[in-house]
Design a protein that fits this description.
Elements: H1 8-13, E1 18-19, H2 30-46, H3 50-70, E2 78-81, H4 84-93, E3 100-105, H5 110-122, E4 125-130, H6 135-139, E5 146-150, H7 163-169, E6 176-180, E7 199-203, E8 216-219, H8 264-279, H9 283-298, E9 307-308, E10 320-324, H10 328-337, E11 340-341, E12 343-345, E13 348-352, H11 359-374
Parallel strand pairs: 1-11, 3-4, 3-5, 5-6, 6-7
Antiparallel strand pairs: 2-8, 7-8, 9-10, 10-13, 12-13
């Protein structure tokens, strides 16, 4: 079945493009555009008073969507920010130990790795990075203040196992467990109900939530980091009458808020979630659609000289296929010359599938790949 009608604006804006980078920059559905316009309309109509709506019904609706997707017991544990890096900085600031002893995987995203490298230079953190399949066992040894891992590794598509084991180690006094769910949220069915009281989970709307930039979120377990030292005035948004010198914090997830932000991402996210509900599309249903396209693609053995890092094995799978080989960059460039968008990270070519693809798109991609490789 084709769901292209939900993405008519993005597809007609560049009709000859084949966009196989849904894992990188997901095309916006029409609903995201409509949500963005609704944010503009409210800004024009309400001006200063728009914040009553944003921090009221818009905020609560977005919290509800995140909580429903992750099966969280309390939507109030959710806070929003322009990017996940903001939350990382606030979490680290709230850990009293210095240097902060961090255990992580050797496959984390650039932003996290860069920040850890810089803090390592300054002596603020000591980082130990291990392969993802060794993380849970290493965490058992203790000696860490923060355990940080991606739910799905961005480069290889490896799905993290052992979140329950990591959560069992978490304590409010430390260690804290942070799961970066950017490649998991709305890509994998994720149930955090049993661990919501012990782990942090962060993600955003840029990828599989189809909502664009500026709609990132953090779930924070109650009782962990009640007063983050890096903070903005929105963290006490409902208690602005405190006397000078008193630094108040919201008792719920909003204690991790910063300051004034662009709320349009929340409007887009809410609109996209409404679109999916109206269309009867769950994360599981979209994943089934994607897996069918991935199987169609792999059936042809399209890249025989490259190694597939994340083969389909019947278990939960990333929304992209990661192929490793010396020709990755050259193949990415050759596809780009033909207006076919993929993604390359070093010697790994990532091909991402989404709701806006159908079987014909996969056939077209296969034909182009065959042509390119015939010229080599």
């Amino acid at each position: 079945m084709s769901w292209k009608t939900l993405f008519s604006k993005a597809l007609t804006a560049n009709p000859h493009r084949l966009h196989f980078a849904a894992h990188s920059h997901h095309l916006w559905p029409d609903a995201a555009y409509e949500g963005h316009i609704a944010a503009c309309d409210d800004a024009m109509r309400l001006a200063d008073h728009k914040w009553n709506k944003i921090m009221g019904p818009v905020w609560a609706e977005a919290q509800g969507h995140v909580a429903a997707e992750l099966n969280l017991p309390d939507p109030g544990t959710i806070a929003f920010a322009p990017n996940t890096h903001d939350f990382l900085v606030r979490i680290i600031s709230a850990i009293p130990a210095r240097p902060v002893r961090v255990l992580t995987t050797d496959g984390e995203f650039h932003s996290f790795r860069r920040q850890m490298d810089r803090w390592s230079e300054s002596g603020d953190v000591v980082v130990e990075a291990v392969p993802a399949n060794a993380l849970a066992e290493k965490a058992q040894s203790g000696g860490h203040d923060l355990i940080f891992a991606s739910q799905v590794l961005f480069n290889s598509g490896t799905v993290l196992n052992g979140i329950d084991q990591l959560a069992a180690l978490a304590r409010s006094e430390g260690p804290w467990v942070v799961i970066d769910g950017y490649h998991g949220f709305m890509a994998l069915d994720t149930d955090l109900f049993s661990v919501a009281d012990r782990i942090f989970y962060l993600s955003g709307g840029y990828k599989y939530a189809m909502s664009g930039e500026g709609a990132c979120f953090l779930h924070s377990p109650p009782g962990y980091a009640p007063r983050p030292p890096v903070t903005g005035w929105y963290a006490a948004f409902d208690d602005l009458a405190l006397p000078p010198g008193k630094v108040g914090y919201a008792a719920d997830g909003r204690r991790f808020l910063g300051s004034t932000f662009d709320p349009s991402g929340l409007y887009r996210f809410n609109a996209v979630r409404a679109m999916l509900s109206d269309a009867g599309l769950s994360t599981g249903k979209i994943s089934n659609h994607v897996v069918a396209l991935q199987k169609q693609f792999l059936k042809q053995d399209p890249l025989p000289n490259m190694h597939l890092l994340n083969p389909l094995d019947g278990r939960p799978h990333a929304r992209f296929l990661a192929f490793k080989g010396e020709s990755a960059a050259a193949l990415y460039a050759a596809l780009a010359e033909r207006n076919i968008v993929t993604d390359v990270r070093g010697d790994v070519l990532r091909i991402g599938f989404g709701l806006y693809h159908d079987a014909d798109d996969v056939d077209h991609l296969l034909r182009f790949l065959a042509q390119i490789q015939a010229l080599e």
